[in-house]
Design brief:
Structural class: alpha/beta
CATH architecture of the domain at 252-332 and 373-472: 3-Layer(aba) Sandwich
Strand content: 15-25%
Number of strands: 13
CATH topology of the domain at 252-332 and 373-472: Rossmann fold
């Protein structure tokens, strides 16, 4: 299953599924091209005969009906089967691409970043689908919740070497971190280290959820030899947010905030009073609504109606979805780029800046890279460095996990959990939202849903689901 969900936008839905069986589709396409010729010759007739034999051996005459049945089973109605892929929404596209990957009943299903651009409900559906898929699945993903839900093994490609581990992502991460800590404890007895690892395995396997995948994973973990748990050589950036001053009780007050875009109501009648220590997941079915909301409360855009006010003791640091305006001077190297945001003379010194960048995994000559050659992930790490140097007590982050690798996502996740100030953030990373947020605010065209709850509880509450349906109707 391809990473690019828009790759087949010019193809009809049913044809997209048929393309999943490459050899069958190639035979069918050649037959159709021959039949379409105006000067159909005897040679063409002979060739069609050969192709028809191949087509029949591949069960090609039943291919359309089998593809249609598969689409219907994946809740793509028959009325859409002959529409172009470009006419479908993101949820429908991923179901069609899944049907394409499954067409022909593969022994191995390979999925490249399947959760990209999907909402949380569709990801949950995909997790459940894969959990009940009987054959082998190989998946590449930056979504830790997804990896935990579907994986029985983790293969870690690190410095050109592949290491294979039993268990899901969290087991691999926590066990490798434990092994790394133990390696640093030179004076600890080998027997004590072994007991610590065995206790970790017992605790982890006891907490595994009850599903087909989880049950088999639990058995593998219980049989695991502690010698198989190795320290990871992966490097994690040192993302640590500190504040110059603690904020008072007045954080942010919003009254009647509304915004539309090109005639579309993004959100309306938003009333929010933010409390000290709130860590708020801002969500919406329309991602433009969230970005517009952030742009307004950080004074980069005007609202159509309503007002907001920050507490006098607050300082805000903002990570926008689009950071391109911060890298317009492409000739600046990273040391000089970061120097722009230094708060003190000490921070302006090259030694300090190089040390700071080194902690963010820009070591040695990488600190002298020009800002115009940075990857998306490197730019986000630079933006996070800028935010850390500001030492604000309010953090506003619009999709901060975009472009980041798993090490940076994990480090950022841990940092926001430990941050003592207030956080407003949006993300498509389920684990990130669940572990950071203690409040969820949803922006809708008909108002706001505001709950002091965890992210999982918000998504699973039937009353909230009913309210969400009404607010978007």
């Amino acid at each position: 299953m391809e990473q690019n969900h828009n790759a087949y936008d010019e193809s009809p839905v049913l044809e997209t599924v048929l393309k999943g069986n490459t050899s069958l589709f190639k035979v069918k396409a050649e037959m159709d091209a021959l039949y379409a010729k105006e000067d159909f010759s005897d040679t063409d007739g002979d060739r069609v005969g050969e192709l028809q034999i191949q087509f029949e051996e591949m069960n090609g005459w039943n291919a359309d009906s089998e593809a249609a049945a598969m689409l219907s089973n994946l809740e793509i109605p028959e009325a859409l089967h002959y529409d172009l892929m470009s006419d479908l929404d993101g949820k429908q596209k991923v179901r069609v691409l899944l049907a394409q990957a499954l067409f022909g009943n593969p022994d191995v299903l390979i999925m490249d970043e399947p959760t990209n651009d999907l909402d949380f409900e569709t990801i949950a559906w995909l997790e459940n689908f894969i959990a009940n898929f009987d054959n082998c699945v190989i998946v590449v993903s930056h979504d830790r919740h997804f990896l935990d839900a579907v994986c029985t093994h983790i293969s870690d490609i690190d410095y050109g070497k592949i290491n294979h581990y039993s268990g899901n992502y969290t087991f691999w991460y926590e066990s490798s971190q434990l092994a790394t800590r133990q390696r640093a404890q030179q004076n600890k007895k080998a027997e004590d280290k072994k007991k610590e690892l065995e206790e970790f395995i017992r605790r982890f396997s006891a907490n595994v959820a009850k599903s087909k995948q989880a049950t088999s994973r639990k058995k593998m973990i219980e049989k695991l030899n502690v010698d198989e748990i190795k320290p990871s050589s992966r490097r994690y950036p040192a993302i640590i947010f500190k504040s110059d001053r603690e904020a008072g009780d007045q954080i942010l007050n919003i009254e009647g905030l509304s915004k539309d875009f090109e005639g579309e109501q993004l959100f309306s009648k938003v009333d929010i009073n933010l409390n000290k220590g709130d860590k708020v997941a801002i969500i919406s079915k329309n991602s433009r609504a969230v970005s517009a909301f952030y742009q307004i409360i950080t004074a980069h855009q005007e609202a159509d109606a309503g007002k907001y006010s920050w507490g006098v003791t607050t300082t805000q640091s903002y990570l926008p979805l689009d950071n391109s305006s911060f890298f317009q001077d492409g000739e600046l190297n990273l040391v000089d780029w970061l120097r722009q945001y230094a708060q003190t003379e000490e921070e302006r010194e090259e030694v300090f800046l190089r040390g700071f960048l080194g902690k963010m995994i820009f070591s040695g000559e990488e600190a002298l890279k020009k800002s115009n050659v940075l990857s998306g992930g490197e730019k986000v790490r630079c933006m996070l460095s800028r935010m850390m140097m500001k030492r604000a007590n309010i953090l506003v982050l619009d999709e901060p996990t975009n472009h980041l690798d798993l090490e940076s996502i994990q480090a950022l996740n841990n940092s926001l959990i430990n941050f003592k100030g207030t956080v407003l953030f949006s993300t498509h990373d389920h684990e990130f939202a669940q572990t950071v947020a203690n409040r969820v605010i949803e922006l809708t065209p008909k108002g706001v849903i505001d709950r002091h709850t965890s992210f999982d509880e918000y998504l699973s509450d039937p009353k909230i689901k009913e309210l969400r349906d009404k607010m978007y109707a």
